[in-house]
Fold these 2 entries.
Entry 1:
Amino acid sequence: MQIQQTLRGHTIFFKKQPKIISSGTIAGPKESAGIVGNYVDKALSDDMFGENTFEKAECKMLSYAIDQAISNAGLNREQIDVLFSGDLLNQIISASFAARDFAIPFLGVYSACSTMSESIMLASAMVDAGYVNTAVAATGSHFASAERQYRYPLEQGTTRPPQSQWTVTGAGACVISGKGEGVKIINATMGKVVDYGVTDVNNMGAAMAPACAHTLIQHFRDTDTQPEDYDLILSGDLGALGSRILKDLCWEKGFDISNNHVDCGEIVYKVIEDEFQGGSGAGCSAVVFNSYVLSKLKGKLFKRVLFAATGALLSTVSSGQGESIPCISHAVQLEV
Amino acid sequence: MQIQQTLRGHTIFFKKQPKIISSGTIAGPKESAGIVGNYVDKALSDDMFGENTFEKAECKMLSYAIDQAISNAGLNREQIDVLFSGDLLNQIISASFAARDFAIPFLGVYSACSTMSESIMLASAMVDAGYVNTAVAATGSHFASAERQYRYPLEQGTTRPPQSQWTVTGAGACVISGKGEGVKIINATMGKVVDYGVTDVNNMGAAMAPACAHTLIQHFRDTDTQPEDYDLILSGDLGALGSRILKDLCWEKGFDISNNHVDCGEIVYKVIEDEFQGGSGAGCSAVVFNSYVLSKLKGKLFKRVLFAATGALLSTVSSGQGESIPCISHAVQLEV
């Protein structure tokens, strides 16, 4: 496992292994009823968070998570050198308006629901190379702002198909630093766009699973590891159906992840019923990873985790023009 | 000027000074009639580029620019380790669908019209740190796809106000590498979000000028340089009015940039008439920088250039909800 190269295949090996020294999380009422409820910094009782629009609530959640991560690290805003953030809304307005609240450099990213792992990867690279001392990676989403942007007005009461997922209301952020105690970031596997031709915008799990399988297999090969080397292989928001497809695709290539794979979308809700296949959205893996999973890593219940958030890079325009759904997944390997 | 620190203020100093070893550019008919016409790899006679929608034409232009940059470097796609790209369309579909054409790792960024300098900054950092050997930074825009997304349907024939700008149809890409001959990337100043409360979505120049002024002044202070140390200070797409505001704001802080400042938006069109304040869009600085300016750098007519692309981080939703326009500008310093 000790590889001195900095790049092998699509995987970047960090030289000094930067650490996640703290995190900040917030979740909506529906999300807080589930597994993350006991781990988030704030469980909202009102998903409007005191704002008058869904978009402003989403932005406020993201700001809260960033602020909380910084204060949980015992730092103040002036000690953060750069913020990497993005979200699902057009022109990543949640991230941009949240960044306005913080007078620190901001590098906007877009990778749909894989924004959390792309942000962690870039923040880790900047810290590891010594360009910055301390960076924040953050993202979030809101069920209602995503529904009205990507799908239908909520007031219309459109019936949801059984293959659909439910966008998580929540946000998560983490502080990455070269100094201090925390969860080590060992390496990161950059994803490439994978598109198997799925056009059903209600079936994100099926669309994203091949991209996730590609990144996981690339990671195993680049790092000379096997699925059993990880205590947890955490995918982003494939949901129940997408997770089954992921396991099949990996198995076909000789990698059996069935014993240690968990999907954030599959576990985020207490009962998968109204949410059909489970949770989705940039906030899904952001909340699960930065609250529950980081907590278990800190407690050494997990010692080595592979976190591969997954993103569907479509828009209403691309789908309307008959395009299929290009997907991506970026992975980061963490250890304590 | 020889500073050994890797971070000073908001400016990252590259240790090995990665180089832009090639570029690829394409421009629409209106743009090709101007200064960039003699420098782009392809001057389109039809802004549909053989496609049946504006969005597909935009994506095809971006793919063309990336492909051309790679072949101009004498490389093939497999030799590119990562692509940094983003664009103005919702969910950066041009970049995501272009990335689908290339089977290489893709890291999506969003910084509106400052995407070119953010992409160059991140690509340079990854190359300089040795995480990747060769990276591509790319962006573009299309007048018609931007108009119908951000403003009105073209068929409506809405009158444009005098403070407005014209989104450039074009794309630009460059290959950044640790090896080979080219234009050296010395350092990069990360921008922060600046918002002076402008709410007029037709007056992007006025909204973005304060962010650009902030980044330029931060850069001068971090690098101990003065405006006269640069042969060219190139802002992204402030247009005529925004450029006047920029000069005033810098002058107020003791930095007189009036002798060597040029704005890509101000020079991109032959005659600023229908376009009022000039060009805008992510493609504006992408095309001007990667064609005309890089050519003059290679020819040593410019020896030191400060390139600060500028972005307005609004969306139709944020404006519709009464928000002002948060803006950002990232700068990179180049030398031959």
Entry 2:
Amino acid sequence: MPDLNGAVTEQDQQRVWAALDKFRIEIPSWGFANTGTRFGKFSQPAAASTIEEKFADAAQVNALTGVSSTMALHVLWDLPSGKSDIPKIQQLERTYGIRSGSINPNLFQDQEYKYGSICNPSAEIRGNALSHLLDSVEIGRALNSRDVSMWVSDGSNYPGTQSIRRRIEYMEEVLAATHAALGPDQRMLVEYKPFEPAFYHTDIADWGMALELARRAGPKAKVLVDTGHHLQGTNIEQIVAWLLHLNALGGFHFNDRKFADDDLTLGSIDPYQVFRIFHEILSDTTTNFNDIAFMIDQSHNLKGKVEAMVQTVATAQELYAKAALVDHAKLAELQKSCSLVEAEETFREAFWTDVRPIVRAWRQSHNLPANPLTALAESGYVEKISQERSAKNAASVSSYA
Amino acid sequence: MPDLNGAVTEQDQQRVWAALDKFRIEIPSWGFANTGTRFGKFSQPAAASTIEEKFADAAQVNALTGVSSTMALHVLWDLPSGKSDIPKIQQLERTYGIRSGSINPNLFQDQEYKYGSICNPSAEIRGNALSHLLDSVEIGRALNSRDVSMWVSDGSNYPGTQSIRRRIEYMEEVLAATHAALGPDQRMLVEYKPFEPAFYHTDIADWGMALELARRAGPKAKVLVDTGHHLQGTNIEQIVAWLLHLNALGGFHFNDRKFADDDLTLGSIDPYQVFRIFHEILSDTTTNFNDIAFMIDQSHNLKGKVEAMVQTVATAQELYAKAALVDHAKLAELQKSCSLVEAEETFREAFWTDVRPIVRAWRQSHNLPANPLTALAESGYVEKISQERSAKNAASVSSYA
Amino acid sequence: MPDLNGAVTEQDQQRVWAALDKFRIEIPSWGFANTGTRFGKFSQPAAASTIEEKFADAAQVNALTGVSSTMALHVLWDLPSGKSDIPKIQQLERTYGIRSGSINPNLFQDQEYKYGSICNPSAEIRGNALSHLLDSVEIGRALNSRDVSMWVSDGSNYPGTQSIRRRIEYMEEVLAATHAALGPDQRMLVEYKPFEPAFYHTDIADWGMALELARRAGPKAKVLVDTGHHLQGTNIEQIVAWLLHLNALGGFHFNDRKFADDDLTLGSIDPYQVFRIFHEILSDTTTNFNDIAFMIDQSHNLKGKVEAMVQTVATAQELYAKAALVDHAKLAELQKSCSLVEAEETFREAFWTDVRPIVRAWRQSHNLPANPLTALAESGYVEKISQERSAKNAASVSSYA
Amino acid sequence: MPDLNGAVTEQDQQRVWAALDKFRIEIPSWGFANTGTRFGKFSQPAAASTIEEKFADAAQVNALTGVSSTMALHVLWDLPSGKSDIPKIQQLERTYGIRSGSINPNLFQDQEYKYGSICNPSAEIRGNALSHLLDSVEIGRALNSRDVSMWVSDGSNYPGTQSIRRRIEYMEEVLAATHAALGPDQRMLVEYKPFEPAFYHTDIADWGMALELARRAGPKAKVLVDTGHHLQGTNIEQIVAWLLHLNALGGFHFNDRKFADDDLTLGSIDPYQVFRIFHEILSDTTTNFNDIAFMIDQSHNLKGKVEAMVQTVATAQELYAKAALVDHAKLAELQKSCSLVEAEETFREAFWTDVRPIVRAWRQSHNLPANPLTALAESGYVEKISQERSAKNAASVSSYA
């Protein structure tokens, strides 16, 4: 193992090493595609527009990082023909050595979801939404994917225009029916978000609502924390602590933001917060680590897509490694005696320490490049796919007007 | 009944009238006392500094409004000798015709609560906090008060200095023990607040945490919503809807704010939001209206204290009357058909309508002054108490330094 | 004049009437078009997709309200061929009796603006942006439009990726060159916005930056306040007061929001705030009222577009009428003596008063329908255009994927 | 010089070293005193309550850090007899080797400032406030202190209760008169804050207002940025960049916060933001570094006061050293070519690097302890003053009630 600096003991390093051994993070297929804001998309020549291209890109990311061998799928975009696309996906899994990760139904894009999907006052539309959810569950089971990640974007834009109460009941019904269809190894992850695309009220606005709905649905339903889905000033690590305490944390959609759900790359705005979230997880003794799905959910509107993904995986590893450096026994002692400055210094010591040498050593010991971003640049991969894909991509630009 | 205007039918007016008949709002004893910010208090000559003065002021407010016959008590400030002050309170109740309202323990002022009260790492300090809570329960029972309103101000100021997880367990233990002591007609209301006086984390930060703690404590524990205790952008009426749905809404601490927990007078910043909160309650069909405690919790730092209280009661009545004007059947129909503009106009019609004539008529029919604020001015009450109290108050100014 | 209620004197009514006489509000062409969020657009059969349809819709709104005879144009969308579209616009002005309002350049949609337009590190791209601005100025002059409304959406998504400082200098250069091209009766309005579509930094983030840039550009540059472009908790009416004090207020983009730049209909979330903004304007004695451009800037993603526009104009009139009711002399007296409760009651008296009867009377005296929304419904206009446009609109749906 | 790690060149280290050579930070006298929230103060045995104790504590901090030889004074608290206390302060300067830093007038504590000081509608009260400001200027001149730091806490709590416009004029008048009294080497720093202690409007709410007021006052007036005085989501480093661009940055009040003006220790919540602020300053080429006053303004409500101060100075140095590591030439190149990921990695490389070894080496080369906090613990200083001061401090506890 490398010499970090005098302050990092052999024991510290072993703890970090062991933590790295068990850390995996899932990448989203849509992170390789062109995305944008309501004001338009900036098209990138290297963007993936087919599911095969997304598998190829994911394989490249995993070849460089070694910790991201699953890819989240978005049903509508990646399996446009629904269940009949399953064999194709399975073929791609074999070809690229990437397994299907969480399955993401789409409840926001169809024109009939204008006033809501599973909260829509129309029983027929709610029924259609349920069908899509049941298909998604079936797809997940066929692909041996554990998690169905449910983001319900329903809400309303104006006070008085919808009954908040009645819509709770609608949701409960659909979620229970979806839960009933889950296979023995499947889970349903309920995501929450305070606003956008609805602006006045979002039907699942916070972790409390997501938790209630998950419980009503059944024991395989857990809460999914998207780090960008909180009001300004929220203490996210406290929510993580509560969900762990209640045995209700299903996993994360990782990203960063400055104001709203900006879907920026993890740790780009507030890396200390990411460190604190990892700390809550690593100091937990009640939850099976593998029951927490670490997933990326970002929109790489401006950054190169493959570059952004590699950068995110590397940053996640490094912030996680910092959290693994925390000396829990010493910290607990100082917290108990309310030695504030000493406790904080002990905690922050781990954050200040440059863990990159040890992460690099870990990578090299697994025959991975020490610096995945540099390796990506040297590989010429992005240039290659840019050439292959650019003509096709130039045509697909959409805009606000 | 008065003629509001052409758009308000006889039936509408009866609905409002009936709603007014059942509306009562509790005033807090501390609303009559000198309060301030961390930068100092501005002393008012008419401020109350004894419990008798607070009872006198409450009686004056109720004489003018007729809907505020109970006064919330703060154990530490109003019963400084604890249980032995009970007879004195009972005597004041008889003298002033004001009953004791909710009982408010104090878990923030003692020096030993520096690092927390019921979440303090010290078992001894937690024990002391529990004792105070048990005393408060006993006081409540002796005074025939239904609710013990628990604001737990515990938290920490710096990441890493306290274990968020461990403190959850501490709280659960104390709250369960407190619940066990409740009499058959008593309830425990669990309040939440995202920040202040602790700045990094508050142990009960949001309604989800309050709800979990209430449930663990037992069936007599409900959630208390203080309208100033939310992050910017929170949809408070949605939380109210959820708590009603879950049969977990215990009551309100009403006030208004622009940014943080400013404790301004109700409706002074965003009256439309107050209207929406009342609407959720009035459109609820599952909860016993009397199970919802409507309480004021404000700090009248600059406004005259009795004036501010009368103004708040009157404003609460008027915004509540507006909400009572909403045509629920028509609104439900329009919500179901997603007729957004029509639904909003139906909803807002009630808000735009000037209900003051009907509220005035209701007051007069109960031998109350049509305009309580004007009546207060004419009564000379504030001048009288200013003269009586001013010398005493001049001495009690405290400051930041 | 109608009898409002006892509290509203003949003199009050005359003041409101006179205020209504001078109030005009501009509607945006894009408010009639399909808009959405980054997650997709919900297509409406009645949406306008051609400039002629937008003129027709604007004419309909003005026929019903009588106060919205100008329509803001978006250069890229409404004059896709640039200056050569001017004769076509002039023809439509004559046909529909609607004049061209403010001219809105587009600095965000072209692929080359990925990293900025007038702040782009590339001198060539900045030059292209300047060309577009100069064209916009020329279009404005040809159409006898006073204002070029400049929303610069430039910014960056990640710390360190752009030089904030250097970009200020780029902007100053382009804005000065644009100002130099303004005709004698033209103005340049500089808009600010704290985030979106850029997430880490927006080059013109607040009114202070907009003001500095306007001053550097020249005397015909003023600040444009979009009510949705502020951080949570901002006191917008205070900014309005400061801009009036500095003689730098050019106008408004009116809309409402709960959290971010939600572009909801005016007054739908916080009507009291709109009232307060109008109050600052109506209590100003230094600015020529006509120098303030009142413009709507909303996205009617869910509401019917023509309905939403009519509703907004009516609501703006009514909230403005409430502000006109304020008794300035009495209020000034009470503010001076710091009679807080009395001052607030005097101020709010105007807000509580139902001014709809007087606004209806004003409309009828101008041969306009008393209730424009009802009149719209009775006109069958929306049904008519839905039939005419629906086939065309069904094809144009875009989405996130 | 020490070996940081392979990535840090000799040249990098020299740059950091040179940067450390010129960095000084001022500590506030009130950081050693008991402070609290509106809910009460937790008294500390080691708290300073006399000006001599504050000088002693400051001397101790400077003995350990070597970069904090000036102490900001609060006129009301530290010179309670005003100008006649000057000789006493001068004596303490000589005794303790600490010079007087910025002079802080107090415009919030006197009872007559209830409705404002320099914005008060009463000309007499404004006159009194001006007198205090003129005294403060004179004190500053006598003490050879460069800066008078003006925090104007004026504002209002309720819409309509004060004239925002009129109060701007009041302020301008007083500030101009104060500026006129400044000596040739004195400056006036105008601070801004969006809320607290006033809740609806603060008269100097943001940097734009502070800048306007500073300009009106005169050329010796600059803007003071308190890092805790911003709305959630504000990009503070952008404001710093603008103030540098406009040659209007006077200095900083450093602290950290999670939600409001929490006055926590610098870098405790968001260290990356502090790094970014230092980066803007270090990449500036137009401002004289010495014209920027780096000052701490924190309330150590829970942390030990001397410990918190030492910790803050050390953290400031370390985050500043990280910023000094940034390779400006390389970064500028990557920003110009919009190489986002590379630019960000270059920028963040400096943040990830553990600069503590080089800061320690710098300290040792100046005969300072490598780790000031450890040295403080070993010195026994806090225990010593606790014993000396504890009896006195126990008596001085104040509270909310």
